[in-house]
């Protein structure tokens, strides 16, 4: 069994908040013991009783060290986290019933107009003054994050009905979080102290970072009018499912340990959540091995129990194969912009106004009177010229830059605006103008009261450079930010959003979907002075960017769909969201990426989420546990290992003969991905759809959008549903007239019934 363990890969990272090193292990004790996770597959019972092998191994560890146990997993899956030596870990890995043993790695966070932009359904909006108990729902969203600030207005339980009787969760208390902080909205609260953290922040559900509060209110925040970030983005704040309940699982402090993440999954399965939202994971360059991925393991067992798991896809874009959390049982989310822009313009001494984008509360005068200098002109005697031009740290001379606005080139490096702000502030600079090479750049995260702005493209920045080079004493100013609505084009796939194809398997298309993730306004912790401009009180709402922010948009939408369609499975809800997605922006043209090119499924999966259409998709693709088990077989795991992993597996199960990764394309997924598609070779895949529309008797016809040189044949070409045949299958045959393909190809298959339903599946042919 050892050598054929299991599972996955993990999740995302926030442009706004970075927590910890993505691959570091928990610090070791004096005797060099460290925390290892022992994963033993499916739980042996549904009542938390330990299996024989589990109990034996645990007793062996505790006999040597009574304080060795960190977490015991027994509800959703079997295993434990404990301190032990490397030799002990290697020995346990050889024991019967053990799937894998791995160190306790640390994951990181993938750090409001978004719902108005998406045209949120009126019937799911909640007004605290007018709503009644009927506005509440028994759907519970579990948030694995940094905790929550319960006093935020977004988490009011006014006019929400009683807590569902089926709920098994608890409200853990501490010195700064008492039982009254839980209510009919926040119905569960657990924390998992990092054993290497000092007492305090680690021993409370209360959020000290802001990230968890932000994501929770994005997913399920109540309707709050007049929300803004110091007047910016002013409007009504509401979550995607304001009627849903929240269960908070605080797993992140200065990082998110695998052991805590698994403990939260185990508890959430026991407590009875319906949707799990995780805005965290590894970076694309530091993914765990398949057998060492705690998030993948926990997500598999949650999905096996009918829970939907939604994860951020990562913030390592726009490079290819950077998407993480790309297992088929995880709903993987990319990030896009919305139709709100934040302008912070530059005014030159010659009265020219240059358009800039940023979020700041600039204290500078509106008159252009502040000295302006390029980073190159402000270089130290020993600094590299290119690094000074780009405003690298320690490259600027304090005597040259102090009291001036510094012009920094960002077209040839990868430093963030915040990195350059730090460098300019270090030498007493008064402000920053950052030139980038991105056509569709968006302002990411507030710079509070430091006057920093981003000028879009060298072409638009040319008048600034021309002015500086032709004037002996150039001056300028940076204006405070103003919000602009109805910005076009929108959405744009955010530059930071991680891209496909999946590094794990090119036979599954990832990411699955995209949602708003840039400059999202949501609730914040009430004591964060670092988020406040000088002299201002901490904000009640804050703007943040990342796939961390797009993930809870999808989690909230999924919860509302579940509330309206309680019998739908997690995969049916995923299918409804994917097949109803849009690929068109608010200019009625194809959605583009940050640099202006037309987006592909590698950028946004099936497209941007829609609201109304996803509640009534017509047809759904249901991906079963058996599909996921076959996936493990196709990835190389043998029958014996798969049987240890899965709880619901039939005794008669065995891996399909001649299993190869190419067979993954046949999993009943809402999208289609085929790897190694070469020339005239013919490839067949099959899919099954279920009619969930109101009409039993209906006929769907196929519309194929195929790239040039590729032939797509469907058998049959129409699907005739009746009252007694609500589930039908079809076959897709891909072939090509081309002798060779030079790049990956994209297309789609759409089933229409001539009425309101259009069920679209993207496909990717990888060379």
Automatic annotation (TrEMBL):
Subtilisin-like protease fibronectin type-III domain location: 666-764
Location in the cell: Secreted, Extracellular space, Apoplast
Gene Ontology CC terms, in alphabetical order: apoplast
Active site, per annotation: 145 (charge relay system), 211 (charge relay system), 548 (charge relay system)
Start and end residues of each Peptidase S8/S53 domain: 137-588
Domain of life the protein comes from: Eukaryota
Protein name, as recorded: Uncharacterized protein
Organism: Pisum sativum
């Amino acid at each position: 069994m050892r050598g054929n363990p299991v599972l996955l890969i993990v999740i995302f990272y926030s442009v706004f908040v970075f927590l910890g090193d993505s691959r570091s292990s928990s610090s070791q004790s004096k005797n060099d013991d460290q925390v290892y996770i022992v994963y033993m597959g499916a739980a042996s019972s549904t009542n938390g009783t330990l299996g024989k092998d589990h109990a034996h191994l645990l007793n062996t560890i505790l006999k040597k060290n009574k304080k060795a146990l960190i977490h015991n997993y027994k509800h959703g899956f079997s295993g434990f986290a404990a301190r032990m030596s490397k030799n002990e870990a290697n020995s346990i890995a050889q024991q019967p019933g053990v799937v894998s043993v791995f160190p306790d790695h640390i994951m990181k966070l993938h750090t409001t107009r978004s719902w108005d932009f998406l045209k949120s359904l009126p019937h799911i909006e909640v007004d605290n003054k007018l709503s009644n108990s009927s506005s509440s729902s028994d759907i519970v969203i579990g948030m694995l994050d940094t905790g929550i600030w319960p006093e935020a207005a977004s988490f009011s339980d006014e006019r929400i009905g009683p807590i569902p009787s089926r709920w098994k969760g608890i409200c853990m208390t501490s010195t700064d979080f008492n039982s009254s902080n839980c209510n009919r909205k926040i119905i569960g609260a657990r924390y998992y102290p990092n054993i290497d953290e000092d007492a305090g922040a680690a021993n409370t559900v209360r959020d000290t970072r802001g990230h968890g509060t932000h994501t929770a209110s994005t997913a399920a925040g109540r309707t709050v009018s007049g929300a803004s970030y110091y007047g910016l983005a002013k409007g009504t704040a509401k979550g995607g499912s304001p009627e849903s309940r929240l269960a908070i699982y605080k797993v992140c402090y200065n990082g998110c340990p695998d052991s805590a993440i698994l403990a939260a999954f185990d508890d959430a399965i026991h407590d009875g959540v319906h949707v799990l939202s995780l805005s965290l994971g590894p970076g694309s360059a530091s993914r765990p091995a398949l057998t060492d991925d705690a998030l993948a393991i926990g997500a598999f067992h949650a999905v096996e129990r009918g829970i939907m798991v939604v994860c951020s896809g990562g913030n390592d874009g726009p490079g290819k194969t950077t998407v993480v959390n790309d297992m088929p049982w995880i709903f993987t989310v990319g990030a896009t912009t919305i139709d709100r822009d934040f302008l912070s313009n530059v005014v030159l001494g010659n009265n020219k106004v240059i358009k800039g984008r940023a979020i700041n509360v600039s204290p500078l005068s509106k008159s252009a009177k502040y000295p302006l200098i390029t980073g190159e002109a402000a270089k130290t005697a020993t600094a590299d010229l290119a690094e000074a031009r780009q405003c690298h740290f320690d490259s600027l001379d304090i005597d040259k830059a102090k009291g001036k606005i510094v012009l920094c080139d960002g077209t040839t490096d990868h430093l963030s605006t915040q990195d350059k702000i730090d460098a300019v502030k270090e030498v007493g600079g008064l402000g920053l103008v950052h030139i980038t090479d991105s056509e569709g750049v968006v302002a990411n995260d507030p710079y509070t009261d430091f006057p920093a702005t981003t000028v879009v493209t060298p072409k638009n920045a040319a008048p600034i450079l021309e002015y500086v080079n032709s004037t002996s004493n150039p001056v300028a100013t940076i204006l405070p930010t103003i919000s602009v609505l109805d910005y076009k084009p929108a959405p744009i796939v955010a530059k930071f959003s991680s891209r496909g194809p999946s590094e794990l398997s090119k036979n599954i298309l990832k990411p699955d979907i995209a949602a708003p993730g840039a400059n999202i306004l949501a609730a914040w912790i009430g004591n964060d002075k670092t988020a406040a401009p000088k002299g201002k009180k901490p904000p009640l709402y804050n703007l943040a960017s990342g796939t961390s922010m797009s993930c809870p948009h999808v989690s909230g939408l999924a919860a509302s769909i579940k509330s309206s369609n309680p019998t739908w499975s997690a995969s049916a809800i995923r299918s409804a969201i994917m097949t109803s997605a849009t690929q068109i922006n608010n200019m009625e043209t194809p959605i583009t990426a940050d640099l202006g090119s037309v987006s592909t499924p590698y950028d946004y999966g099936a497209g941007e989420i829609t609201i109304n259409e996803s509640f009534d998709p017509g047809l759904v693709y249901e991906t079963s546990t058996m599909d996921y088990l076959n996936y493990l077989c196709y990835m190389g795991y043998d029958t014996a290992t798969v049987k240890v992993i899965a709880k619901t597996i039939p005794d008669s199960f065995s891996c399909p003969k001649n299993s190869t990764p190419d067979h993954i394309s046949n999993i009943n997924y809402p999208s289609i991905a085929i790897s190694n598609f070469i020339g005239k070779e013919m490839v067949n895949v099959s899919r099954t759809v279920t009619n969930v529309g109101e009409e039993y008797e209906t006929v769907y016809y196929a519309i194929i959008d195929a790239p040039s040189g590729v032939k797509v044949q469907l058998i049959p070409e129409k699907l005739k549903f009746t009252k007694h045949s609500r589930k039908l299958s079809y076959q897709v045959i891909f072939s090509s007239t081309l002798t060779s393909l030079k790049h990956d190809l994209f297309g789609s298959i759409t089933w229409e019934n001539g009425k309101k339903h259009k069920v679209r599946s993207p496909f990717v042919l990888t060379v």
